[in-house]
Amino acid sequence: MGLFSFYKKPTAAQKKEIEAALSRGRTCAKRLESLDSIDKYFTEWDKYMKEEEILEYYEDQRIKFTVSPRKIHSMVCAEIPRIEKDTIMRSYDRMQRDAAKLSTDSGKKKKAEKFFNELEYYYSRLQPESVQLIQQLKNGCQLLQ
Q1: 3-state secondary structure of 127
Q2: 14 vs 116: CA distance, rounded Å
Q3: How confident is the model at residue 1 (pLDDT cuts 50, 70, 90)?
Q4: Which DSSP helix (H) or strand (E) runs through 28?
Q5: How far apart are CA 26 and CA 75, in angstroms?
Q6: What is the rounded CA–CA span in Å between residue 13 and residue 31?
């Protein structure tokens, strides 16, 4: 039957756009699971949200999906705290590996400061639990001592 059925039949172009948005949204959601950069995380999140808006538009046009895009979106949103935590931890580990390659303590400290400043920029977009995690990492970071 496919991924969607219709109250009213979409045009071929609309059907193609829906299928493409579903595919791109799925790809973005999968990528969120493995990123190690907060910049890349929000880039992928913004792409995912763009595809979500397209699907919601078509759902509002009375195209009935087998599984509602809103339901899928709520499932993805339920995983965001875990995904953010994992992304932060992977990027923290990467920063520590990169800092370990540096020869001076001041270089290591600058690397850590740059990392935490980058994360701080995104505080307004992060979950409160993620901000707390970042603060804990910053307070415990030996490179900043």
Answers
A1: coil
A2: 44
A3: very low
A4: helix 12-32
A5: 12
A6: 27
Looking at per-residue confidence, does 63 or 73 come out higher?
A: 73
How far apart, in whole angstroms, are the C-alpha atoms of residue 38 and residue 44?
10
Q: Global pTM? A: 0.86
Distances (CA, A) of 32 to 39, 79, 125, 135: 11, 10, 15, 22
Name, in order, each residue with C-beta under 8 angstroms of 84's C-beta and a sequence gap of 6 or more.
41, 126, 127, 129, 130
Residue with tokens 């538009």: 57
Cα–Cα distance list, 25 to 18, 32, 59, 66, 93 (Å): 10, 11, 15, 16, 28
Q: What Å distances lie between residue 7 and 10, 11, 65, CA to CA?
A: 9, 13, 10
